[in-house]
Amino acid sequence: xxxxxxxxxxxxxxxxxxxxxxxxxxxxxxxxxxxxxxxxxxxxxxxxxxxxxxxxxxxxxxxxxxxxxxxxxxxxxxxxxxxxxxxxxxxxxxxxxxxxxxxxxxxxxxxxxxxxxxxxxxxxxxxxxxxxxxxxxxxxxxxxxxxxxxxxxxxxxxxxxxxxxxxxxxxxxxxxxxxxxxxxxxxxxx
Length: 190
Hints:
Distance between the termini: 11 Å
Radius of gyration: 19 Å
Strand content: under 5%
Shape: globular
Number of strands: 0
């Protein structure tokens, strides 16, 4: 198993509901084009130390395996972990409501300027930065999840299949039980 990727400092106390809502609202408002899970990781694990890295990555994996928007699933779980049912609701609303108003406003602005060369350059720059954030999160998760050769093989099969086929539902349906079974056997042997 690789060394822990997080520091050993203790977790901070859970935030109040308003602070929790504000944290999700702020992050969701500044994460243009994606990368929200990477920003949530930085805020909740590294900066504020509200959750452990292990809990965050477990939540992210669960959020990605469940139906619905990954970020909404992740926010709901993190809110629940920190403040129970009401925290779950605050996190969900913080993730969705402020950006909804911003999207309406930006939609009007983009519609006005999208046909110009400056508008296309700005949108390409936003997309490139979001891709960079998403890729850095993928590298972090890979370093944490691929702990041994068997995990590496499952990862390589999943990545290769996703790149070749595009649709990952069948891949997850086949590889998730295999991966869970292998992890269970590995934990049982320890």
